[in-house]
């Protein structure tokens, strides 16, 4: 596969991921049922593709699996309690936690660029939390924030695993999400709409999306991958606004813009600096 095809697959991946918000809003099940059953369906799809998932072989793999569970479950729960825009954009505060945890686990230094990103993301975070206090959605915002913590931790622990381990981790994470959510699902209402939505979420929005991501990511430079995947938090609230009628507040838009610019801008700045150095050689 070449870089161009990898980019196309990443764009498709981001679009599939972005439907999480509108699907979660429309389905009548509680968040535990949505997260658990979606995970089971995705796990079955991944089992078809990766027929022999290996059991975790290190503590870092176990940590990566539990971080993944927190990422996917908490995003669904927060989307039920706050706006889809708040839920997905607060999840993207993950670089803060990746930088801090990466310093201790991966021994990666925290650069001035990282500090700049952390400060900007914290400013965006303050806007989000103020918005939560203003409209009474603080609980959902805090859960979304925890989802971002799990996202950041997952990125770090995945990097400590073998190169073939992430696919296994995603499989076990989805299966574990189902097992852990099972006691809290209640009695999901069986309707054609609910079944259609959960099948779409499990097969396409989560399962197929991660399969495409794993295929594409080795062929796309980190800078481009970062910018492309930012499509997810941009499109997520757009679908919700168009099809569900939920409009993000002005503070959400401002806070989200700060967070997304901080994330993508960091990599762009590094790339420009690299090009500047090369031009002097």
From TrEMBL:
UniProt keywords, alphabetically: Membrane, Transmembrane, Transmembrane helix
Transmembrane is among the record's keywords: yes
This protein's record includes keyword Glycoprotein: no
InterPro entries tied to this protein: EamA_dom, EmrE-like
Membrane-spanning ranges: 31-48, 60-78, 84-106, 115-133, 139-158, 170-186, 192-213, 225-244, 250-269
Domain (EamA) ranges: 5-129, 139-263
Lineage top rank: taxon: Bacteria
GO cellular component annotations of the record: membrane
Family note: Belongs to the EamA transporter family.
Annotated protein name in UniProt: DMT family transporter
Organism: Agathobaculum butyriciproducens
């Amino acid at each position: 596969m070449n870089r161009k095809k990898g980019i196309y697959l990443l764009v498709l991946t981001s679009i599939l991921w972005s439907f999480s918000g509108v699907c979660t809003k429309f389905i009548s099940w509680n968040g535990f049922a949505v997260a658990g059953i979606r995970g089971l369906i995705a796990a079955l799809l991944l089992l078809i593709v990766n027929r022999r998932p290996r059991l975790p072989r290190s503590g870092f793999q176990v940590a990566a699996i539990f971080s993944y569970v927190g990422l996917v479950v908490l995003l669904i729960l927060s989307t039920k309690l706050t706006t889809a825009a708040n839920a997905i954009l607060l999840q993207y505060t993950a670089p803060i936690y990746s930088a801090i945890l990466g310093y201790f686990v991966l021994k990666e230094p925290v650069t001035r660029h990282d500090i700049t990103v952390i400060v900007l993301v914290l400013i965006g975070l303050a806007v989000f939390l103020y918005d939560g206090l203003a409209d009474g959605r603080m609980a959902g915002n805090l859960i979304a924030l925890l989802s971002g913590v799990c996202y950041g931790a997952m990125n770090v622990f995945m990097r400590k695993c073998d190169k073939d381990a992430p696919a296994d981790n995603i499989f076990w994470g989805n299966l574990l999400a189902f097992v852990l959510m099972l006691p809290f699902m209640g009695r999901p209402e069986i309707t054609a709409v609910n079944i259609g939505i959960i099948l779409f979420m499990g097969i396409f929005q989560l399962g197929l999306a991660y399969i495409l991501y794993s295929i594409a990511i080795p062929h796309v430079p980190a800078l481009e991958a970062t910018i492309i995947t930012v499509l997810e938090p941009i499109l997520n609230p757009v679908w919700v606004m168009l099809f569900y009628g939920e409009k993000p507040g002005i503070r959400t838009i401002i806070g989200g813009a700060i967070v997304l610019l901080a994330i993508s801008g960091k990599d762009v700045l590094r790339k420009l600096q690299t090009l500047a150095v090369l031009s002097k050689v």
